[in-house]
Write a structure and sequence with these properties.
Number of strands: 10
Order of helices and strands: HEHEHEEEHEHEHEEEHHH
Strand content: 15-25%
Radius of gyration: 19 Å
Shape: elongated
Number of helices: 9
Helix content: 25-40%
Largest sheet: 5 strands, mixed
C-alpha cells in the first residue's frame, strides 16, 4: 500500500500536480531553518501535507532506513553502506547564550576558560555534535560545570533566563527570548554544517527536492544576509515574507 501511494505521488509530481505527504525529520540546532522552509513550502504547495518529526539524529537515521521519512536533517554524515545519500545543506554557527546581565555578556567573545567559571545547561545534541565542538575548540567539553542536560531548546533557554547558567545554540533561537544574548566562542567562530539525507533505494519525491531547493536557495541566503545586516536576527519577520518579498530583501 505504501509503495502504491508513493507511486501515485510520483505520477502526480510528473504531471506537476503536487499532492500527498512530505515526511521530514529534523535534528538539533537547525529547526528554525526548516521551520521557515516549511512555511514557504506550505504556502506555495497547499495540497502537500508536511509531517515533521523533531528528534535526535540516531532516531532519525533509523526512521529513514525504515522508509518512515523522505528527508532527514542532522549534523552527522550518514554511512554509505546504510544506503543513505547525504548532502551538505544548512550552515550555522553555535554561540554561548546567557542573560544580558550575565558577567560574560559584556565580552565580545568568550573563551573556554571563561566558560569553565560558570554553570552550564547543555543541549542534548548527541555525542557526535559534542565531538565536533571539542575538535573545533580543542578542549574537553565535559570538564565544563554542566548542571543539567535539556533536549528541548526552548526549555533550555527558559532555564537560562531564570538562572546564571549558559547554554549553546544558534542565535536564531533567541527570537522569543529578548533578555538573552549570544556571544561567539573563541575557536568556534567558523560555521558548522548540517546535512540532508534520503534513501538511495527509492526515487526522491518531487516535494522533497523542492523543499531542499527552498532551504538552499531561499532560506539559507535570507538568514545569512539578515544576520549580517541586523546582528541579532529575529526570524519571525522573515518567515511571513512571500517568495517575492524575500527576493527583494536579498536584492536590497
Amino acid at each position: 500500500l505504501k509503495q502504491a501511494e508513493d507511486c501515485k505521488e510520483q505520477i502526480n509530481a510528473i504531471n506537476n500536480c503536487m499532492t500527498g505527504e512530505l515526511r521530514i525529520g529534523v535534528g538539533s540546532f537547525i529547526a528554525p531553518y526548516v521551520r521557515m522552509a516549511a512555511l514557504i513550502f506550505m504556502e506555495r504547495y497547499p495540497n502537500v501535507r508536511i509531517n515533521a518529526d523533531f528528534t535526535k539524529a540516531r532516531i532519525l537515521n533509523k526512521a529513514l532506513r525504515a522508509h518512515m521519512l523522505d528527508l532527514a536533517f542532522t549534523m552527522n554524515m550518514a554511512y554509505s553502506h546504510e544506503g543513505i545519500e547525504s548532502m551538505p545543506c544548512i550552515p550555522f554557527n553555535v554561540y554561548a547564550i546567557m542573560r544580558d546581565t550575565h558577567p560574560l555578556a559584556s565580552l565580545p567573545k568568550v573563551s573556554y576558560e571563561d566558560l569553565l567559571k560558570h554553570p552550564v545547561i547543555m543541549p542534548d545534541v548527541g555525542e557526535r555534535a559534542i565531538d565536533t565542538f571539542q575538535q573545533n575548540i580543542n578542549r574537553d567539553i565535559y570538564k565544563l560545570n554542566i548542571k543539567c542536560i535539556i533536549s528541548d531548546p526552548d526549555e533550555a533557554l527558559a532555564s537560562v533566563e531564570e538562572t546564571k547558567c549558559i547554554t549553546f545554540m544558534p542565535k536564531l533561537y533567541l527570537r522569543n527570548h529578548p533578555t538573552l544574548v549570544a556571544r561567539p566562542i573563541i575557536g568556534l567562530e567558523q560555521q558548522l554544517m548540517s546535512n540532508a539525507h534520503w534513501m538511495q533505494d527509492v526515487p526522491k519525491k518531487r516535494a522533497a527536492q523542492l523543499f531542499l531547493d527552498i532551504i538552499r536557495n531561499e532560506v539559507v541566503p535570507y538568514i545569512s544576509v539578515a544576520e549580517e545586516s541586523k546582528g541579532n536576527f529575529t526570524p519571525t519577520t522573515g518567515i511571513r515574507k512571500s517568495h517575492a518579498d524575500i527576493s527583494l530583501t536579498l536584492a536590497t
